[in-house]
Amino acid sequence: MKYARLTKEQFEELHQEFINFLATQSITAEEWEDIKKNKPEAAEQELDVFSDLVWYGVLNKVEYLEHISPQQLHLFKCKEKDMHLIALKINNEAIDLTTKDGFAWLRDNLLSDSIEFYNAKKDYSDDKLMDIFTLIQQGANITKGELFQYFEKLIGQK
């Protein structure tokens, strides 16, 4: 398995897609029950293959990621050949960007000396999708990019 197995909840959400996946392999519901019961290692392999297919589809569509921690905000734009990062570091431990109040403070104090802005570009490794997956595993969330676009305009970068 290249990425990570989907959670039980994710499999439940994708129940119909998993049935379709099994059908593409000519595995009926009865055969699937038999595989789970008598060949658990084969069932595990099918779950892993399906998980990787789902991850591959998701990762291919990612355009923006955000990782927010109490004093830092990392905003990523996933382009074709590289990734653009806009990061903010808050030099005030009383501020917690993971809270509504902390985010309101950021909005109201963008020009404060307590905020450091960083802007960087990084080429992908040989495996762009794994680079994106690693960021997700480290806590980044897939977004529509509103925050990235806001700060991109603010700092005047394209």
UniProtKB/TrEMBL annotation:
InterPro entries per record: DUF6495 (IPR045470)
This protein's name: Histidyl-tRNA synthetase
Domain of life: Bacteria
Pfam families: DUF6495
